[in-house]
């Protein structure tokens, strides 16, 4: 294979020596490989971080691996390996998030999490839409006592405050705190080594999620071509039907052919029903499905329908994929 990129990394060891490693990207006849070797390149045992033909997947694996080893203390000779111009690593917001995760009160966090669970169940919403763990960590670390202090927590905007601010402040009012607002003191108080390690952990998590998404995408496409079903994919990928349909629609937007799957999933849907859906998409548009549901089935009230509303919406989404493809074909 031809080496198209190489960089050397170094890390101090416990015995005051320096451990070196080499990272390389290699290519042969359109196939990429990312290799990591600790010690002398000629005698070290290489770890293969990636092998395949996808440049995009290779770069995600490359960055994920870099974040992992830099989090372990390796420093590249050529710097700037994970620069991301869309973020500001030294920003106060990032430091507050880090400090919150490292110094959260377990007792207060537990109380806030229980409040969130109850609220999410009452509103029938996902818990993270009420407040993410990161927000709860920061609240439990900084313990705001007033609306003005709560507003300084990154991610806690006016909408959340209008809905939940008083309830959260009732919980924090019962907790002790040792720090003060405003929170600029975190810049000097936060341990720089811990913050650096935390930043690499965030990058590692980010790239791992991208790698998992690429793997799921390949699995979906393979299963579609091999005659699999939505039920099979949902079980194998541990995704809800709604999440899976989101992925299918994204693949369609990217130009992949999912018609075989659509045909299999709609095989038991009467042709006249499919034609009614198609006509409704032409009539009321394909952006929102609730008007389509009402026009075809006469109601959006689950109690008035002969099938569960989520089943009907999935059916509509599948037919809409065909409809949108037909519009694209006409445009071409």
Could you describe the largest sheet, including whether it forms a barrel?
Answer: 5 strands, antiparallel
The number of helices is 15
The parts where pLDDT drops under 50 for at least 5 residues are none
| SSE-based structural type | alpha+beta
Distance between the termini: 41 Å
In total, the number of strands is 5
Mean pLDDT over all positions = 90
Q: Which H/E pattern describes the elements?
A: EEEEHEHHHHHHHHHHHHHH
| Anisotropy-based shape | flat
Beta-strand residue percentage: 5-15%
Q: Which radius of gyration do the C-alpha atoms yield?
A: 26 Å
Strand order of the largest sheet: 4-3-2-1-5
Helix content: 55-70%
How would you explain this protein's 3D organization?
There is one protein chain. By secondary structure, the chain is of the alpha+beta class. Helix content is 58%, strand content 11%. The chain has helices at 55-71, 92-103, 106-123, 127-130, 133-142, 147-150, 158-172, 186-189, 192-225, 230-237, 241-253, 259-265, 271-284, 290-297, 309-331; strands spanning 2-12, 18-28, 31-38, 47-52, 75-76. A 5-stranded antiparallel beta sheet has the order 4-3-2-1-5, covered by helices on one side. Strand 3 (31-38) and strand 4 (47-52) form a beta hairpin. Helix 1 (55-71) runs antiparallel to helix 9 (192-225), helix 2 (92-103) packs across helix 5 (133-142) and helix 3 (106-123) packs across helix 5 (133-142). The longest helix is centred in the middle third of the chain and has 34 residues, at 192-225. It is flat and about 75 Å long. The two termini are 41 Å apart.
